[in-house]
């Protein structure tokens, strides 16, 4: 096993091309990457293509897919329940994402005040993140319970009328959203906190010398320097929110009526309960197009308000 | 002074609200059948008259908890191993080997994080069904051997921070890539291995949709599926349901307390991708 190229010490830390590279290295490198890449193709790209094909077919496992053209999409347009699912998912996203982001920024700002016992607070906010969907749904169902739940006991303690939460078709979706904010908060808090700790202290000192108050320092320094982080959290939470399923499935099964059914819940029911694979695939592709469109829009708008460090 | 008091008060109230569900869960899991469904008349009722630790034992009698536990552990352990091996190898190539289109490929891998998993769910299910893998653990284990984008990213970032001289020295001594990876790089990479393993552990332990779609027979169910069906079956034993939820939470919570800084580091790294 010989090194076939002349050995040149790397001139700077950045230039990797000056590395001594044996032929073996390149071959193994390709092998290391090729295997995951091939499987990545099989599990990410090919299914996408196949899903697209399926969405134009009728497929129930009993026989080969039957090409039906745009029929699935026509049905989808007329599907009243799917329209409700679309609306519920939109409401869910529009509610959970901004609320979660604002709350997590608030908590991160509070935790960034050089406070004692940060580990305790961090634990309190992060525990829901590692709690499984089923376990959190089970606990929250029990908290929401009309007669014996603690939430109604708390409401009554402050003199408010008790609610039927998950049983009330107008309150069910907000209740699920409430739980989702609780569950997702800690993750954004951790990311915001790290970003806050990365803001150089001297900026604040300079601003203070110039007479800027706390409010001005927040709007002038903190918020602008958090733009990249905010953008990241925004994009990933929107993608996650559009795919909400587990909490709805366990807590309400989409009900009462269709009050909490979501797009993925409908995909699950159609594809895996009614075995209408083609129809489910059409829904999934529509969801993909929606998510892609929203993400692309976010990136396009981001040029106006996000800049990364190092860019002028 | 007042400002600090406000900060502490706000933080404490919010943290209390975050922990309230856990307190309620714990309280309900320790009640007897009658107390757990008794409405709270006053604040004193929050503390149950007696603590029933035997609820945790009774869970094992009400549902095949040990069987579900065995299934979950099997899936989780295999998935952790798969993720560690495949992702670290792939990341090694991305970090140290000369490859055509290395950066393009790496960004393609990262971009898959943005793909909604739902779109590939149906075709993947059909594929596994054709392979006869439905109602086996394979669909839940095998994909982890193909690497996960997040784990590859974590490994690559860590590898790039390793001292280059050591790796170069190994190469000059004639070590092959595989030898360098196994003898030099991996032994130095314990922190990132722990982080990746932790995230794989929590992800698989808590996974609901995967088992829900692929595992039909009850004897192959995972804990999460068991808890979900327990929730539908048992109406008059809420205390046992809550005790079951507590038992399922314990391993994850213990892992979090023992390895908190690895969790935080991983969560922060995921923020760096943006």
Radius of gyration of chain B: 23 Å
CATH topology of the largest domain in chain B: MetI-like fold
Determine the strand fraction of chain A and express it as a percent band: under 5%
Counting helices, strands and paired strands, the structural category of chain A is: mainly alpha
- CATH architecture field of the largest domain in chain B: Orthogonal Bundle
Into which percent range does the helicity of residues of chain B fall? over 70%
Biggest sheet strand order of chain A reads 1-2
Q: Tell the overall outline of chain B.
A: globular
Topology as H/E string of chain B? HHHHHHHHHHHHHHH
Number of strand elements of chain A: 2
Helix content of chain A: 55-70%
Q: What's the number of extended β-strand segments of chain B?
A: 0
Can you walk through the features of this model?
The complex is a heterodimer of chains A (312) and B (274). Chain A is mostly helical and 312 residues long. Chain A has a domain at 90-257: MetI-like fold (Orthogonal Bundle), CATH 1.10.3720. Chain A is 69% helix and 1% strand. Chain A has helices at 23-54, 71-78, 80-111, 118-130, 133-144, 150-157, 172-197, 201-209, 214-225, 227-242, 246-251, 263-273, 277-305; strands at 57-58, 66-67. Chain A has a two-stranded antiparallel ribbon. In chain A, a hairpin with a 7-residue loop joins strand 1 and strand 2 (66-67). In chain A, helix 3 (80-111) packs antiparallel against helix 10 (227-242) and helix 4 (118-130) crosses helix 7 (172-197). The two termini of chain A are 48 Å apart. Residues 1-20 of chain A have low confidence and may be disordered. Chain B is mainly α and 274 residues long. Chain B has two domains: 2-52, no CATH class; 64-272, MetI-like fold. Chain B is 74% helix and 0% strand. In chain B, helix 1 (2-29) packs across helix 14 (238-258), helix 4 packs across helix 8 (149-160) and helix 4 (65-96) packs across helix 11 (190-206). Chain B is globular. The mean pLDDT of chain B is 86. The chains are: A mainly alpha (312), B mainly alpha (274). Chains A and B meet through helix 1, helix 3, helix 4, helix 5 and helix 6 of A and helix 1, helix 4, helix 6, helix 9 and helix 11 of B.
